[in-house]
Amino acid sequence: MRLSDCHNIDDFRLLAKQRLPWPVFDYIDGAADDELTKARNTAAFAECDLVPDVLAGVGAIDTSCTILGRESALPLMLSPTALQRVFHWQGERAVARVAQRHGLWFGISSLATVSIEEIGAMGDNPKMFQFYYHKDRGLNRSMIERCQAAKFDAIALTVDTIVSGKRERCARSGFTSPPKFTASSALSYALKPRWALDYVFREKFALPNLDTHVREGTGEAVSIAGYFNTMLDTHMDWKMAQQLRDDWGGKFALKGVMSVADARRAADMGIDAIMVSNHGGRQLDGSRAPFDQIREIADAVGGRIEIICDGGVRRGTHALKSVCAGATAASGGRLYLYALAAAGEQGVERAVTILKDEIERGMKLMGVHSVSELTPDRLRWR
C-alpha cells in the first residue's frame, strides 16, 4: 500500500499499521478496556442524517469560521496529541507546517516532542497548548510562562485524566515513553527497520516542555498510565482550574467536559470554550461519545460558551454534523496521527486535503453557502 492509495482516514490507518512496530501502532490505535467508547465515538455520527437543499447556487461557498477569537479556514481543529516524534521522526513539526498552510488551529500536548517555543515560531495560524495539571507547581508555572512568551492563542486544560484509563494494548506491549526495547517487542522493532533507524539515528527523543523539571518520559522510561498516575495532581478541582485561567490570562478551554452540569458550570465561570471529549475513548470505557452529547450541551449553554466536538472524526461530513448539532467546530487527533505515522508531512497534507475537500463537497451538496447555515434543521436523527 502506498500513500497514493490513501483516500480516507481508514486508509491512512492501514498504511500506518504496515509501517509502525506493533507497540507504537497500538499506542495510537488503542483505547481503554474493551474499547467500546472508542468505537462509539465514530459510530455515533451514523445515527443521524444530513438533509440537503438543492438549486441553491453554490458556485461560491465559505468554509471558514471563528474559533476562540481566531479565524479558521475550516470548522475543524487538529487536536493536541502526545509523543508525535515516536510515530514519525518529523513529529509535531510536520503537523504544524500543514496546519499553517491550511490556516487551521493546531494544538500541542504538554507531552509534545517539540518545544513550545519552536511551535510558537512556526507560522501565524492559531495554536493551542494542552495543559496537564502536574503536582510540580514549578512545572505548571513554567509551561504557562513559556506559552505566554511564545504567544500561543489558547490553553486547554485536560480535565479527564485524574487517573489513567486501563489501556490494555499498551499493557501487553510494554509501550513506554521513550520506547524501550523489550523481549516481547524487539522483534516488532526489528521488522520495521525504517522506523527503527529513524528513531535511533535522528534527533534524540525528548519531551522539551517537561524535562526542565522532571526526568520521567525523557531520561527515564515510563508508561503513559504510570505518568498520569504519579505525576498529575488528583486534587485538581474547579477552583484550581479558575486559578490556572487567571494565571494564563488568555483564551481558555476545558478539554474533557461531557456532562451538561459541567458545561453549565464552565459557562457560568466565563470559560471561553469546552472541548466535549472522552480522550479518544482512552479513559472511561463505556462513556458517551462526544457527538452524542453535543445537542443537549448546546441546548443548555449554546451561545454562552464555544463547544468543540472532539473525538471520532473521520470524515468531513462528521465536522458538518457536529456544527449542525450545535458545536462551533469539530476536532480530532487520530485523523492526522495515522497519516503522520504513514508518511510524515506528506501524509498529513494529504489527509487534511481530503477532509477539506469532503467539507467543501458536503456543503455544496447540502446547498449550504457558509458554516453559519449549518443549523439543527439540517439534521434528522434516526
Residues in helix, %: 40-55%
User: Average pLDDT, to the nearest integer?
Assistant: 94
Tell me the span between the first and last alpha carbons.
36 Å
Say what the CATH topology is.
TIM Barrel
* Global Rg: 20 Å
By DSSP (H or I, 4+ residues per run), the number of helices equals 16
Secondary structure elements and pairings:
Elements: H1 9-19, H2 22-29, H3 36-43, E1 48-50, E2 65-67, E3 70-72, E4 76-78, H4 84-87, H5 91-102, E5 106-109, H6 116-120, E6 127-131, H7 137-149, E7 154-158, H8 168-173, H9 186-190, H10 193-201, H11 224-231, H12 238-248, E8 251-257, H13 260-269, E9 273-276, H14 290-301, E10 306-310, H15 316-325, E11 329-332, H16 334-366, E12 379-381
Helix pairs in contact: 1-16, 5-16, 13-14, 15-16
Protein described:
The structure is a single chain. The relative contact order is 0.21. Helix 1 packs antiparallel against helix 16 (334-366). Helix 7 links the parallel strand 6 (127-131) and strand 7. The mean pLDDT is 94. Helices cover 43% and strands 13% of the residues. The two termini are 36 Å apart. The strands form three sheets. Strands 4-11-10-9-8-7-6-5 form an eight-stranded parallel β-sheet. The radius of gyration is 20 Å and the shape is globular. The protein has 16 helices and twelve strands. The chain has helices at 9-19, 22-29, 36-43, 84-87, 91-102, 116-120, 137-149, 168-173, 186-190, 193-201, 224-231, 238-248, 260-269, 290-301, 316-325, 334-366; strands spanning 48-50, 65-67, 70-72, 76-78, 106-109, 127-131, 154-158, 251-257, 273-276, 306-310, 329-332, 379-381. It is α/β, with parallel strands linked by helices and 382 residues long. It has a single domain, classed as Aldolase class I (TIM Barrel, Alpha-Beta Barrel).
